[in-house]
Amino acid sequence: MSAVIDLIKAEHVGVRELRDHLCGFMKNKKPAIVVTERGEPIRVIMSYAKMVELLEFFDEVSDPDTMRNIHEGVEAIKQGSKGVSFSGTYKKYHSAVQAVKK
């Protein structure tokens, strides 16, 4: 979920400023930049790696079996079962995906 936190903390840049200084913003190492027009967010610029991570997450949560397992887990926790943390599970999953990519 770091993509959500990155977006919340992202620098906001006006569309005209972006146009005038695009090269500088493209070299920027920040995870995300929110582009605004008249103060309203209209686009997000993020790194390729962060976008791939986000799309992989969407693929996982759009899988019916994954969602069924999540709902079953939530119900089990409501009934008193001890659960596992999402962040720990996600880190293990993300590490495994990175190992496969190498």
In short:
The protein has 102 residues and is of the alpha+beta class. It contains six helices and three strands; from the N terminus they run H-E-H-H-E-E-H-H-H.
What keyword list fits this structure?
single chain, 102 residues, alpha+beta, YefM-like fold, 2 domains, three-stranded mixed sheet
- What is the residue-averaged pLDDT? 83
The CATH architecture of the largest domain:
3-Layer(aba) Sandwich
CATH class of the largest domain: Alpha Beta
Q: What is the 3D form?
A: elongated
Which series of helices and strands comes N to C? HEHHEEHHH
The low-confidence parts are: none
Strand tally: 3
- Portion of residues within helices: 55-70%
Enter the CATH topology name of the largest domain: YefM-like fold
Strand content: 15-25%
Give me the number of helical elements.
6
Q: Strand order across the biggest sheet?
A: 1-2-3
Total number of domains:
2
